[in-house]
Amino acid sequence: MNDVQLSGRIVERAALRYTPAGLPALDIRLTHACELMHAGAPRKVSLEMHATAIGDLALDLARVPVGDEIDIRGFLGKQRNGKGVMLHISAFVPSSQSPNSN
């Protein structure tokens, strides 16, 4: 199974582009930080990750300001250049609108 759920802050957004098939596409860079239990002890976790959205999701994501938190659902795949991992977004919601936010 390849199903990822992640909350993160948008720290960079590339210009909206179009795929060869004519679909809108948008690449972003996210940061995430939290504390989790790992092997019975708390562990601080932080990361930066590239993510991409295609189609209507790309257009919706383009309206979210850099600096905002979002909750994402998607899957992991290769980056377009074949180096590294990319989070392919299948759904997102601003964290302020998430049912899990306080």
UniProtKB/TrEMBL annotation:
Molecular function GO terms recorded: single-stranded DNA binding
Keyword Membrane: no
GO BP annotations, alphabetical order: DNA replication, synthesis of primer
Superkingdom of the organism of origin: Bacteria
SUPFAM superfamilies noted in UniProt: Nucleic acid-binding proteins
GO cellular component: primosome complex
Keywords: DNA replication, DNA-binding, Primosome
Listed Pfam families: SSB_1 (PF22657)
Family: Belongs to the PriB family.
Subunit structure: Homodimer. Interacts with PriA and DnaT. Component of the replication restart primosome. Primosome assembly occurs via a 'hand-off' mechanism. PriA binds to replication forks, subsequently PriB then DnaT bind; DnaT then displaces ssDNA to generate the helicase loading substrate.
Function recorded in the entry: Involved in the restart of stalled replication forks, which reloads the replicative helicase on sites other than the origin of replication; the PriA-PriB pathway is the major replication restart pathway. During primosome assembly it facilitates complex formation between PriA and DnaT on DNA; stabilizes PriA on DNA. Stimulates the DNA unwinding activity of PriA helicase.
Protein name (database record): Replication restart protein PriB
Originating organism: Sphaerotilus mobilis
Lineage of producing organism: Bacteria, Pseudomonadati, Pseudomonadota, Betaproteobacteria, Burkholderiales
Gene name as annotated: priB
